[in-house]
Inverse folding.
């Protein structure tokens, strides 16, 4: 899974019928302290995440292993909101 | 999913029989404002996208979860045309 | 899918039994004009492609969705020979 | 599989129900001597690994082939703790 | 598939039960002449490869399509030992 920050939202009228009602959020991968970098990607939200949250995303066929994403054409899913990250014995991120 | 811009089209006479009648478009991944960069890739269109559209593409086995791509040897599908993108509370892209 | 140029061939005596009789070609990914770059990769040919051809390759489980590659341990397949590529309204590649 | 070092832990209250009770560790890919580099990623632990361990992780659908990860939305699993690595006839890493 | 050189071996006592008895080798991707570069990765051997051999590896779910790797949590498999590589009409690698 990737550690990623939710940075925005997408709106689409024309889409595969299985995507109707799905919330597609824009993310950036982060380092272990929650600092984002690199190109954005889009994932389906299954945990009511919001802009600014640090989350975990799962990719590929694993993204279809939730009740919300089963059999849908999506390759990335937000399956967890991160409360805290600890690296080498120190808390490096805590949700505010 | 990746945010990508449709930049062109492909023509192939010789192809796997399951690809007959499928529209294969050339795309470039973009940033969250729709600015493309990097190498092109090709995806099957399932939403009647055209050159210049900003779209979402799903990769891998997820690309086969539409009625059009089921059981076909394709690893990328356009499953949504983007109307608008909002980042940090601002609209950064709106379809013209 | 990736746009790629066939640059060579591989010969292997010792291989998984499901690969016997399969043609494994060496490719390089190209840009939209057919200019190759980057590290080579190897794909199973299903369309009688030859050295010099510009082709499309599909990766991952999608590579096993042809009659020739079903259930075989291959993660890349040539499923189309490109006749022409059009970008922004101009033909940028035409098979010679 | 990737050679990776366990560098930390994640805590999440809000997550997909299939992830309850799963231990999600933070890792960095390493070279063959166990020196980490690059962005962190997160994997499910199935072998009781701890911070500082050098491990192997499997990605994608392969990450769901253990009793602990079956049918769960995870795309990376720790499936082995490395005792030693030998390169070109020399032991380059040994677990302390 | 990737062209890769076997550079070493791994030893693990603690591992997923499906991996018992499997040989996990360390590899580096190479160019078309067999020159390795980049970070190492680990693959299951199914063809009795040894250190120094140039091989092909298949990744993802395709890595589980051999008798040895079926249903196991591995995402890379050595499925062929390369005898020779020919690029642009010239033999650029021949097994010694």
């Amino acid at each position: 899974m990737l550690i990623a920050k939710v940075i925005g939202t997408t709106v689409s009228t024309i889409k595969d019928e299985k995507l109707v009602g799905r919330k597609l959020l824009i993310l950036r991968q982060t380092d272990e302290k929650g600092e984002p970098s690199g190109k954005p990607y889009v994932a389906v939200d299954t945990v009511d995440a919001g802009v600014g949250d640090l989350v975990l995303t799962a990719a590929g066929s694993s993204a279809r292993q939730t009740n919300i994403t089963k059999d849908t054409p999506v390759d990335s899913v937000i399956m967890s909101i991160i409360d805290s990250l600890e690296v080498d014995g120190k808390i490096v991120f805590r949700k505010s």
In short: The interface with chain E takes residues 61 of chain B (CB under 8 Å). Chain B has a mean pLDDT of 96. The two ends of chain B are 22 Å apart (CA to CA). The first strand of chain B starts at residue 2 and ends at 11.
